[in-house]
Write a structure and sequence with these properties.
By secondary structure, the protein is an all-alpha fold. The protein has four helices and no strands. Helix 2 packs antiparallel against helix 4 and helix 3 crosses helix 4 (61-95).
Length: 97
């Protein structure tokens, strides 16, 4: 049995504390670059396949671990992109003054 981690101690929670997505402190250039980050087509296809197998109940333990890694990376990317969006909003708000 794999040990469980408290929600506040997961990689995504730790990333959230490091990145501080609620603080719009990135430059517009950095924010735009982060918003361009995305999975490539091969990775999306792999996630689709793994997700389908998970829904069917035919996912192996190795595939489950792989899918969890994709989900972890997606969560971390969402944290970064949240900060990027907020940074652009802050920049645009200040520019209108």
């Amino acid at each position: 049995m794999q040990p469980t981690v408290s929600p506040s101690r997961t990689a995504s929670a730790i990333w959230g504390r490091v990145v501080k997505p609620g603080q719009g402190t990135l430059s517009p250039e950095a924010a735009r670059a982060i918003l361009m980050l995305d999975f490539d087509a091969e990775d999306r296809q792999r996630v689709d396949l793994l997700s389908t197998k998970a829904a069917e109940g035919s996912l192996s333990e190795e595939e489950r671990a792989e899918l969890e890694e994709y989900l972890r990376v997606n969560n971390e990317l969402m944290i970064l992109q949240s900060k990027a969006r907020l940074s652009l909003q802050e920049f645009n708000r200040k520019a209108k003054r």
